[in-house]
Prior knowledge:
By secondary structure, this protein is of the alpha/beta class. The chain is built from five helices and ten strands.
Amino acid sequence: xxxxxxxxxxxxxxxxxxxxxxxxxxxxxxxxxxxxxxxxxxxxxxxxxxxxxxxxxxxxxxxxxxxxxxxxxxxxxxxxxxxxxxxxxxxxxxxxxxxxxxxxxxxxxxxxxxxxxxxxxxxxxxxxxxxxxxxxxxxxxxxxxxxxxxxxxxxxxxxxxxxxxxxxxxxxxxxxxxxxxxxxxxxxxxxxxxxxxxxxxxxxxxxxxxxxxxxxxxxxxxxxxxxxxxxxxxxxxxxxxxxxxxxx
Length: 248
């Protein structure tokens, strides 16, 4: 039985060495997920893969149906999710292509459907979100990286912005004052929805660029794509080792 799902973000619309068994087009009470669910094997172990932005990377962050994505994985029987995301570095100690396993998140988004508990027939429900990521899943990722000599940063505060535009330098200054070390556009409500459905969820964030105002260079998509090509190589390695360790 498949135990784990990988949600791919920018730079990870497919998994290298993923042996596809079948693709299932599913729907949920919240609508359709970003793409058909891909069932297959990674490192010889069963995995479900879902590209967050769609197979052709056509969905901007604020248009992703996060509820359908998480519900579809839950309905499939998935209990644990590793979410891969491209992010900008606010902390000057973080370098291009670094992998970060964040332990906290601050939500700056608005207008997104961010809960399963908004139906008038649903009881008011307040989840404990003190620690937004599964501590057990995070530690397994960290241990896998250590065991296989894959360099990672073990903590980080993910600031989630609305997108799809990049942030202003002033916004990054504010986020830095708030304690953010990373900035991305897809971390919420994904993490909260997984918690509402009692699913284990951890993020594997890849530094694509220095955040606005943190470098004298202008941010370009060409540079981001090149950096992600480098960073995702270590992500592929980490995921392969992690899936093998997780399934044993």
